[in-house]
User: Fold this.
Amino acid sequence: MKVLVFSAKDFEIPYLEDANRGKHKLTFIKASLSSKTAIKAIGFDAISIFSADEACFNTIEKLRDFGVKYIALRSVGYDNVNIRTATRLDLRVANVPEYSPNAIAEHAVGLLLALNRKLIESNRRVKYFNFNLTDLVGFDLNNKTVGIIGTGKIGAVMTKIMHGFGCHILGYDIEQNTELVTNYNLRYTTLKELCKLADIISIHVPLNTETHQLINEDLIFEMKEGVILINTARGAVINTEDVIEGLKNGKIGALGMDVYENEKGIFFDDHSLYIPDDNLLVALNARPNVLITGHHAFLTEEALTSISETTIYNIDCWEAGKETENELTNIGERV
Assistant:
């Protein structure tokens, strides 16, 4: 099968090639998918896209007209794909439902530790041989209350890690994980109560209509003074303006984020020669109690291997005329 890989990054190409083992003809381009770049897919049976690519209604219509039949996502999230349109136009879409929940959860913990113990500022001082300890005071994680919003695969790993630190764990999810309750003393509660009691809040929910800007002014008002907020889920799960206001008034003591609601067109590229025209991102970046990483929580060898293998597996299934269990399009609704 001829496959065009959009948004191909140098670090992932070797993993995809290893997983492919010469079975499919892969073509890698750095351009991201949009209605303007969809024309590049002419002559290809399938495309592979990443979370920053845009497969909206117009884009999918163009892909269909250009002869593309399959879309293989290299991510868990698929909020960037109009699944309903793909189903109606008979394009098969599959994602990578999981790759390494450890990678995401461990990155969230890394953000937490760096913020709490002021590691970035401490290292910055030491670079200039300044060993003054003023304003570097943190707190023990032991006996602190951690709120986990979303206790799926990633949230479950986060729960286990924080339990190892001796934390009290609160959970919020539409489905409860009894193993976490039994083995890690997690207590499920309402979102409002979680915000009232947690010293640390870590977000691990997908982006959908229910979770869009879930963390807003009302919930921030309920939070403990000086709470540490960690987001490695999706940027639009939080209302950035409201969070900035929470940082200003001290309600939010620190913010660690690997995702940003307006990251499209900014993240994954080098903008060091100019400042992006984004006042919210500039405001966040200017605050010493905010730590931002560029959507690279997934970036481990294990995760890249799993993503590549599942992506190629999905394409293998399609070429063999089979449905992959990772499909997002509803076959029964295809016309």
